[in-house]
Amino acid sequence: MPPVPRRAPKGGIHPDPSKTWLRRAWPIVRAHRALLATSLTCSFAGLIVQVWIPDLVRIGIDEALVARTGDLTVYVGLIAVLAVTQGVINFLARLYLLRTAYEMEYDLRNIVFTHLMRMSYAFYDRAQSGELLSRATSDIRAVQMYLAFGPSILVQCTIAGVAFALMLSINAPLAVVAMLTMPVIAVLGVRMRKAIFPVSWLIQSRLAGVATVVDENVQGVRIVKAFAAEQRQVDTLARAADRVRWAYTTDSRIRGRWLPVMDNLPRLGLAMVLLIGGLMVLDGNATVGTIVAFNSYVLMLQPPFRMLGMIIMMGQRAAASAQRIYEILDTPTEVLDPVTPVVPEPRGDVRFEGARFAYPDGTVALDGLDLHVRPGETVALVGATGSGKSTVARLAARFYDVTAGLVLIDGADVRDYPLPTLRDRVGIVPDEPFLFSVSLHDNIAFGHPEATREQVVTAAVAAGAHAFIEKLPEGYDTVVGERGYTLSGGQRQRVAIARALLVNPPVLILDDATSAIDVRVEHEIHEALRDLMHDRTTIVVAHRLATIGLADRVVLIENGRAIASGTHAQLLANEPRYNRVLATNVSEVTI
Ligand SMILES: Nc1ncnc2c1ncn2[C@@H]1O[C@H](COP(=O)(O)OP(=O)(O)OP(=O)(O)O)[C@@H](O)[C@H]1O
After folding, report:
1. Using CA positions, which residue lies closest to atom 18 of ligand 1?
2. Mean pLDDT estimate for the chain
3. What CATH topology corresponds to 350-585?
4. pLDDT digits (tens, 9 = 90+) for 369-415
5. Residue nearest ligand 1's atom 16 by CA
6. Is the ipTM above a cut-off of 0.85?
7. Quick one: which H or E segment has residue 308?
8. Does any ligand 1 atom lie closer than 6 A to the CB of residue 388?
9. Residues of the chain with pLDDT > 90: what percent?
10. 381 in the Ramachandran plot: left (φ > 0), alpha (ψ -120 to 50) or beta?
11. Residue whose C-alpha is closest to residue 578's, from 590, 565, 589, 591
């Protein structure tokens, strides 16, 4: 089944950080203004009908029951028709409001996720995934709620004005009496929300804390079990859960203190209308119908006044959430596509010229590296741990940009390539391959989703993965467990190599990508690679003598520099530093 085409977000976030959060979000509101306006119009119409009904009840009582000049059934019929109309309008208002809300949420999610996907390695080195997750979910929800529901609550509040005007026209003094408790309800509502606001933040952050504990322990369950730390981790979760419980209890206590007062105030309003209105009826200054209608208004009007507090708090919450979202959106990606891209003929020539690089935290990883790997050559990078070997791989694929010097692929600066072209030219297989919870076919075809089964199988054969995949009950259609944990480490690495091979990059970098693979199988993989493409350049970060043995040339890396180069035998004979590294950092699996 072909995937459903993605609808591009209709609105965006204004890029100017000096604008207020609402002005920056305004393009999203504007993009959905037709839906929002429809929902608000329906909601306004529904409220007008709602205000109208008590007035009809009043006229019905006064004319059909008290004065006996009207026909009761006419009023009952009219009220029934209005009630049905109100039901229909309210249904439409709700429908359109929710549609507006979810359309806005869709846009916000797409904008944030697209930006996250564009961010470079350096951003993810600093970011915490739990934090990003919460920004991409609850913060987006908070902003969406305010943008969509805020105007609707405001409409409900304006209707209070309409109802008050109607009451004034019927009986001004009694209208004032009916409205007396409303400001008190509004003030109490605002105060209650103010008291609840910090606690609700606490609840959110503590819930995120629980989610982090659960997430980490599910992800890291193998380590937890390996160290028999189950009970300790359960205790950690219990403590996090207890903090949530405390926050929720505090929240309930605050609500418990305010809500009875807020709930009883309208009853006080009803009593006052009955008392003052009753006296007026006895004096002939009001009708019985008026008292009944005003009773309905007192009950009808209190929710908008209660919601005033809510809307203020929603606004504060949305403002804070929007800032957290904007923080992500305002972070520029360090690795940008070039303005005038160059795309030379692919040959597989890799050259580092005086390359210097420090990670964002300041750790210097490359310190003037000079390295030239010719087309078709297989070079092994050998060095002590932390010497900068993996960094070479990351810079060749431009996951980061050099701080000084040059990285050239086929004579062109990697910064001048369009990023997708560069990533097609330089394939990287990391030591810890990440597999998605999809079929093996889809995992291997990740770089080229349109690849045929034949292409996938060819790549798998070359990577030494075909034999084990074929033996699985569902073969290439087997869906691997989360992160590929249903496969062995070596099998995962072979699938990752197949994934890189399918793209057929002229430069292939295996960053210790065969560490979990049997030496014999590794040899077969390299033979297959050699057969598959004679002129492919391969750089292997090697930690085993067996892997080193597969290379044409070995480059010794120390403190971010290439300090020696030659065949394994040459270095072994002439380079004491090479011998030292072999002794301490390379496992003694014979070639
Ligand atoms: N994401 C990162 N953020 C900060 N520093 C990093 C990061 N990745 C690596 N480093 C540091 O950069 C230096 C070079 O790391 P690199 O991973 O390139 O070494 P390596 O030679 O591949 O090591 P190993 O053989 O242990 O894999 C080390 O000091 C390391 O601690």
Report:
1. 388
2. 87
3. Rossmann fold (3.40.50)
4. 999 999 989 899 999 888 999 999 999 999 999 999 999 999 999 99
5. 388
6. yes
7. helix 288-329
8. yes
9. 39
10. beta
11. 565
